[in-house]
């Protein structure tokens, strides 16, 4: 099927909708704010003030209307992102309402963890099942250089998440040559100590322009070779944690479970993509690595029915491309915090 056919009519399935290339799309990532209390180099550029236009952001009820429409369409997996989603007021109440929605099977959260110590238990009680926590370094100075934040608060959040009994807690590390490449083995040992999966993620071209220089890019293949000098990597081809594209390995001596997400170096990265994104200002983005967006906010504020919202979601899936454009001098148009992680 050619790329030009990517606007064909999608087929509704019992679980999700098939896109023009036969992939079942049943996973919606919802950015509930573009605000953040950190300034990660790869996500939020200096001076970004997108959240100044708060009337553009979806309300709690508008988010829940989208969730109900998506669940009626066959979406089963949902993840709340940002920005930093824990900055959103009444988040446990939003999660509780999502969990009570017929058809919703899994609700996850992606967070920097800085506010998780106080919110882990309430979110677990509300029905949140899984948490992904960004941890780009253990050394306080390196962490502050990459994120502008305090790693101690993140570590407290990780411990609270483990204690809260979530079904799964994963750690995410964005690879930055010359910044956190000396932190990789300490991170592996930390993950092994807490028995948490650790995922190394290649830097994607959705960051600051100066960070996208080739000198900053550290491919997952090189990280794998570094780890092999310390331990044996045993492939785990049948190991799936959640709904993402990571390829997992077990380190024989440490026991750590390490995943690798290589959006730029993995030739078949997009073949099993099952997700679309909803931005904080109500736009559906069929692909993180493409510019196309479909407006839901206007429909929501014009009083559209759930059936009409579902139809718009299906149209967005019909525009889902075969693959991203990260390797084609892609420039995102707006930062990751505005798109949603």
Would you write up a description of this structure?
The structure is a single chain. This protein is of the alpha/beta class and 341 residues long. It has a single domain, classed as Alpha-Beta Barrel (TIM Barrel). The chain is built from ten helices and 15 strands. It has helices at 60-73, 91-99, 116-126, 140-147, 151-164, 184-194, 220-228, 297-301, 306-318, 336-339; strands at 11-12, 17-18, 24-25, 27-31, 77-81, 106-111, 130-134, 168-174, 198-201, 233-235, 247-251, 257-261, 275-278, 283-285, 294-295. It has a twelve-stranded mixed sheet with strand order 10-11-12-9-8-7-6-5-4-13-14-15. The chain has a three-stranded antiparallel sheet with strand order 1-2-3, with helices on one face. Strand 13 (275-278) and strand 14 (283-285) form a beta hairpin. The longest helix has 14 residues, at 60-73. It is globular and about 55 Å long. The two termini are 29 Å apart. Mean pLDDT is 87; it is low at 1-7.
Please write out the topology.
Elements: E1 11-12, E2 17-18, E3 24-25, E4 27-31, H1 60-73, E5 77-81, H2 91-99, E6 106-111, H3 116-126, E7 130-134, H4 140-147, H5 151-164, E8 168-174, H6 184-194, E9 198-201, H7 220-228, E10 233-235, E11 247-251, E12 257-261, E13 275-278, E14 283-285, E15 294-295, H8 297-301, H9 306-318, H10 336-339
Parallel strand pairs: 4-5, 4-13, 5-6, 6-7, 7-8, 8-9, 9-12
Antiparallel strand pairs: 1-2, 2-3, 10-11, 11-12, 13-14, 14-15
């Amino acid at each position: 099927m050619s790329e030009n056919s990517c606007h064909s009519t999608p087929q509704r399935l019992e679980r999700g909708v098939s896109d023009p290339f036969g992939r079942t799309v049943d996973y919606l990532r919802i950015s509930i704010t573009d605000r953040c209390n950190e300034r990660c180099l790869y996500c939020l550029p200096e001076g970004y003030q997108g959240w100044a236009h708060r009337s553009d952001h979806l309300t709690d009820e508008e988010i829940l209307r989208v969730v109900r429409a998506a669940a009626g369409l066959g979406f089963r997996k949902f993840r709340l992102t940002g920005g930093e989603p824990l900055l959103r007021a009444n988040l446990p109440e939003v999660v509780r309402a999502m969990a009570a929605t017929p058809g919703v099977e899994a609700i996850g959260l992606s967070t920097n963890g800085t506010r998780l110590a106080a919110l882990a238990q309430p979110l677990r009680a509300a029905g949140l099942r899984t948490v992904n926590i960004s941890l780009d370094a253990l050394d306080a100075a390196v962490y502050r250089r990459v994120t502008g934040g305090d790693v101690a608060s993140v570590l407290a959040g990780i411990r609270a998440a483990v204690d809260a009994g979530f079904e799964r807690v994963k750690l995410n590390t964005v690879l930055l040559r010359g910044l956190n490449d000396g932190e990789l083995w300490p991170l592996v040992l930390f993950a092994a100590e807490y028995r948490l999966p650790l995922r190394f993620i290649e830097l994607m071209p959705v960051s600051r322009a100066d960070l996208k220089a080739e000198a900053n890019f550290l491919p997952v293949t090189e990280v794998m070779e570094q780890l092999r000098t310390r331990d044996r990597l045993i492939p785990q081809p049948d190991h799936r944690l959640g709904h993402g594209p990571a390829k997992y390995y077990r380190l024989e001596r440490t026991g750590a479970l390490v995943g690798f997400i290589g959006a730029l170096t993995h030739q078949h990265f997009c073949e099993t993509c099952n997700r679309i994104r909803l931005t904080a200002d109500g736009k559906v983005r069929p692909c993180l690595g493409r510019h196309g967006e479909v407006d839901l906010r206007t429909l929501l504020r014009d009083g559209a029915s759930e059936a009409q919202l579902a139809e718009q979601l299906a149209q967005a899936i019909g525009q889902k491309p075969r693959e991203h454009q990260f390797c084609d001098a892609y420039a995102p148009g707006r930062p990751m915090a505005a798109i949603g992680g």
